Amino acid sequence: MNYQQILYSLDGATAIITLNRPERMNALTKVLEAELRDAIEQAGRDSEIRAIVLTGAGKAFCAGMDMDELEVLPPDDIQAEQWMRPYDMNRRADYQTRYSYFPAAPKPIICAINGAAAGLGLVMALYSDFRIASQQAVFATAFAKRGLIAEHGIAWMLPRIVGHAHATDLLLTSRKVTAAEALAMGLVREVVPAGDLLPNAMALARTLATEVSPRSVRVMKRQLWEAPYQSLGEAVTLANAEMITSLQSEDFKEGVSHFLERRAARFTGR
Description:
Elements: E1 6-11, E2 14-19, H1 30-45, E3 51-56, H2 67-71, E4 109-113, E5 116-118, H3 120-127, E6 130-134, E7 138-140, H4 154-162, H5 164-173, E8 177-178, H6 179-184, E9 190-192, H7 197-210, H8 214-226, H9 232-247, H10 250-260
Parallel strand pairs: 2-3, 3-4, 4-6, 5-7, 6-9
Antiparallel strand pairs: 1-2, 7-8
Helix pairs in contact: 4-5, 8-9
């Protein structure tokens, strides 16, 4: 796909996806939405890619849905055929909806939040595996101020990240939250100066690409996102089965070898 509203580039084993509508604060359109999903799935299929960094061009990360499109959006657009996909038996159905597909990506997604993350922009950040914020970042659910509701699973995701009290506050008031407050409530992993945002995100991506097994990361990401639907017994049973497989993997052998030989790891993901 030739992208019009995102940028897609590679830096070593990291795919960098940039929302690229800076003049509109990277507000979502149907074009951008389709391109973003294609790019994430492309990075997921690429065996050379071990991490994905998602960020925004200009001063904002994503200010939500573009108001020009939102104004004329048909009420049933959320269930339009173009957004429906054939069911994939290898992915949990919960992570195949229009916006909740980030957890199904086999690579960790690092969200580098460079500015405003509101509405669907916040939803995308929540579905990412890591969130790093610039000091200029600001967060808002925004839905109540538009006469909308807690969209696209945010009422499920937000309490799991910041707790029920914070989630209630953010959803019902739609107030803006600074980067410092977001850090205090656990919404983001760290807050850094604007100029350090992408370097910090890329440093984390390099750690994931070179210092840990991509096979382990892939399996553990799936375990983490499956856990909310499992009992402890089910989680242990799955872990036991995965442990047997991991002990037979090339990455396990390499994990032992590089430790004993006191050298850098050379994981293959197999």
